[in-house]
Design goal:
single chain; alpha/beta; 6-stranded mixed beta sheet; 4-stranded antiparallel beta sheet; elongated
Length: 296
């Protein structure tokens, strides 16, 4: 999950010196204003092998992770007919109840083109005038044959409406090339051969990561010196990947802890033998606590 970091994930090099990372904290993700349409296949085959259960559980997981409002969700169900199953709402209880009541039909085919493009009940028409970021997530167990012209119509309609399409195919050993091309054409994600509840949940969590807005994390490392400009390289190692970013960090003078002396020089002058002279110097810690360990 984005933001699930610990200090050991990072290496900080400041002006060529490796600095110890003290902490890293990331605010929770923010749900932006968005409209999410769940386009759910309810054809007969979705009742087999736990597919409809996987769809219900995964969709519910995504809904629970969002904030309503500013999010709103509607549901389109389809087999060889497309229906508005739930009009758009920001009532989480209503959304979850509607998802939970979905079931496969006793028969029917899988009209993916109608699911997207029906002029009254199609997912793109249903979504296009909704506010905020717009998404359609299709859940199906079919790998339909679509003409190139049909795929283009779906992509063009979604692009014109500002809709991004994600797809989740809930059947084993399925290569759903039409949905791959449709999601790629709308800058979406596709998932295939999703056959378990956990795999479906994981797919929807990944989709959620694309939906959320992530505020900046705060990384704290231990440093020293009084320079206000520092060249910093930060390396993140996570999930077998490594990313390094470089930046020039401008340290505010008020963030630099230092000792202020009331005078920088003490001149005792010429002292006769056997005499002493005392001069007071006041040391004041600025911008933090300072521990004086030695004086030389």
């Amino acid at each position: 999950h984005i933001g699930n970091f610990v200090p050991s994930d990072f290496t900080v090099v400041e002006d060529g010196i490796v600095r110890p990372v003290q902490s890293v904290s990331c605010p929770p993700p923010i749900t932006p204003p968005l409209s999410l349409t769940l386009l759910i296949d309810v054809s007969y085959s979705m009742g087999l092998a736990g597919r409809m259960n996987n769809a219900r559980v995964a969709a519910s997981t995504l809904v629970r992770s969002l904030s309503y409002p500013p999010a709103a969700t509607g549901i389109i169900s389809f087999d060889d007919t497309t229906r508005i199953y739930l009009p758009y709402t920001s009532d989480t209880t209503t959304i979850l109840s509607s998802i939970g009541s979905l079931s496969a039909m006793a028969g029917g085919g899988t009209d993916v083109v109608g699911g997207f493009l029906d002029k009254i009940t199609g997912a793109i028409e249903f979504t296009k005038n909704q506010p905020g970021d717009k998404y359609v997530v299709i859940l199906t167990d079919g790998a339909p044959f679509l003409l190139t012209s049909e795929e283009k119509k779906i992509i063009d309609a979604a692009t014109a409406a500002g809709v991004r399409i994600h797809s989740v195919t809930l059947s084993a050993n399925t290569q759903n090339f039409p949905l791959r091309r449709i999601t790629a054409g709308t800058n979406g994600l596709w998932f295939e051969s999703i056959t378990t509840e956990q795999a479906a949940i994981d797919a929807f969590k990944t989709i959620g990561d694309r939906i959320f807005t992530y505020p900046p994390c705060e990384l704290v490392y231990l440093t020293d010196g009084c320079e206000t400009l520092r060249n910093v390289d930060i390396t993140l190692r996570k999930n077998a990947s490594t990313v390094t970013k470089s930046a020039v960090v401008n340290v505010p003078p008020t963030s630099i802890v230092w000792l202020d002396a009331s005078t920088m020089f003490v001149d005792f002058g010429a002292l006769p033998t056997g005499t002493t002279r005392t001069a007071d110097v006041t040391l004041t810690a600025r911008n933090g606590t300072v521990t004086v360990q030695t004086l030389t």
